[in-house]
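Today's session is about reading a structure prediction critically. Students often jump straight to the picture, but the first step is always the sequence itself: look for stretches that repeat, for charged clusters, for runs of hydrophobic residues. Only then move on to the predicted structure, which in these notes is written as discrete structure tokens rather than atom positions. Here is the chain we will use throughout the hour.
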Amino acid sequence: MNLFMSVSILLVFVVWLNYQIKKTTKLSNKSRDEFWKKESLANQKRPEDISGLDYINIPIDKLPMDDLSDDTINSYRDTIFSLFNKKILNLSSFSNTELKLKYGVSNLKILSEYDDNYTKLVSFLQKWGERLYTQGYLNEAQAVLEVAIDCKTDVRKTYLLLAKIYAKQSSPEKILALIDKVTLSNIQDKEDLSSKLKEYISPDKS
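Below is the predicted structure for this chain, in token form.
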């Protein structure tokens, strides 16, 4: 390759690189402008009535509330019980801007609190169920994990551990029902989760 060709290739590359940089900058500026326009509209949105939203109710009567010899298990139970009378919403699919646009800026703080309650709920239900399972309380673990499913948890480990319990019980029909719930949920990568759950239908899965 002679010097002329090398210089020509370099010039072409520089022109292409400049084009890509300008294109990326333009797209970035456009996205930024769109975001701030949306944010401005959101900050002007009047509050909407949020009393009729899909609040999550904890079915305390389905949970194993008796004291056990394990203090960690009891502490997880107490944490869940502390949420019983609080309002709980899963708003993880919404950004703050989207929440303001939908329900009004003045509702953002309280909605964020309800969403935090949901995160705490599903996190501690998983911890509680897993601790019960590892300590040999299989029936109690099953009850806690099933309540988590009823509360529309998005914690993947909850589905997998419950499927493991069902497999130990030789109950493939319950695993299939669990897969149906995943299919209808908003869990990320639910196809992958469903595939992992199907593995527990095999009799040699433990």
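Discussion point for the tutorial: The mean pLDDT is 86.
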